[in-house]
Amino acid sequence: MLGTSSSQEKFGLTRFGYERCLTHAHIAFVALEFGTYQPPRGGRVLQADHWLWNHGDPTGPEAVPLRDALRDPFYPPFDDWKEMVLWRSRQVPGQGVTGLAGDDVQLALAGFCNDESSMNFYRAIRKGTIFKAIVGREPFHWVSARPEVLELGSKYGGWGIDASAISSSTTVASFGLGEDVTFEASLIERFGCQVYGFDPTPRSVRYVTEHVRNPRFSAFPYALSDTDGTLTFTLPPASAADQVSASAVARYDPSSAGTVDVPSLTLATARSRFGLQRLDIVKMDIEGAEYAVIQQAVTNGWLDEVGQVLVEFHHFLPGLTSAQTRQAIALLRGAGFDIAWIGRTNHEYLFTRQRRNAAR
Questions:
Q1: Residue 14 placed within a domain
Q2: Residue 139, in any domain of the structure
Q3: Could you tell me the pTM of the whole model?
Q4: Could you give the number of structural domains in the chain?
Q5: Looking at beta carbons, which pairs linking 61-67 to residues 24 or more positions away fall under 8 Å?
Q6: Along the 360 residues of the chain, how does pLDDT read in single tens digits?
């Protein structure tokens, strides 16, 4: 409390009723404030509303756009903002109850109110994920908190990783770099890993050439696929939010997006060609090609010595389905992996070895 706020005297607040009824209790009120726009924007709208009620007609046609404008500073029409408000509104009361409860109640609430549980809840409500899951359009898995899992990288390019199984001797193969290598850079900075990055898309090749200087980060212009040879990538259409990630699988319209031919390698060929005899972590952000690659890698035992597999599933791209993601998850589980982390979009997954989890 800075003591810098001032207010006229207030009457009829709900808190007054609680204070009168609960005279035996100490009451602490928590108000959550969620930012929207800079103050001048809201001030102009309030000024216009004040003018309307004093000099205009609040029931006339000129009042309609003003009413809409008055709502906007207090309830912006952005889904991300609404989701974060709902997420935080659920998280804070849970934390408060946990903090005030006795030891037994805290233990009972711990699994429900921890940060990972809050992220599960956030994933469920984000863009109606839970409703899509109910009708079969989106897989959804509840993930238990794991203290060894850290999130590294930016909001856009970040991933979860089991930090307890990483050291300077860890070898990472990252397929799909785009224009964000903050995850790979964080692995090198924090643990001293050796990272091998692969991405043949023209914009990614330019970005990596201009920005990657660390000798522990080697980058190669190849696509990961279930075949060795050449793939035709369709570039994302102009309307797509992501203008970097091309795909050989998604059914973009090539007449409106354009195409580019790129060299491709299987996981086995990439390992033999670039000397990856030991491979501890494999990351795949390969725009829909992950389904065929996982099928091939599991069938041939190419992941048997890999401890962590990170995958972004792309069933949201045109021509791909959530059934393919469910099948890929089942294959990885059958190969001895557990889901250890899922990102905020519900598409990025971290799989870790079951035997390693059980040993802890």
A1: no
A2: no
A3: 0.68
A4: 2
A5: none
A6: 455 666 777 777 877 777 777 777 777 777 788 778 877 878 888 888 888 888 888 888 888 888 778 888 888 888 777 877 877 777 777 666 666 655 444 444 444 444 566 778 778 888 788 888 888 889 999 888 788 999 999 888 899 999 999 999 999 999 999 999 999 999 999 999 999 999 999 889 999 999 999 999 999 999 999 999 999 988 777 665 566 678 888 877 766 668 889 999 999 999 999 999 899 999 999 999 999 999 999 999 999 999 999 999 999 988 999 999 999 999 999 999 999 999 989 999 999 997 444 333
CATH number reported for the structural domain that contains residue 267 in this entry: 3.40.50.150
- Report yes or no on 20 lying in a domain: no
User: Could you tell me how many residues make up the chain?
Assistant: 360
Paired residues of 175 in beta bridges: 198, 284
* Containing structural domain, residue 347: 146-359
Q: Does residue 175 lie in a domain region?
A: yes
- Is the sign of the CA dihedral 58, 62, 67, 72 positive or negative? negative
CA dihedral (299, 307, 183, 174) in degrees, to 10, reads -30
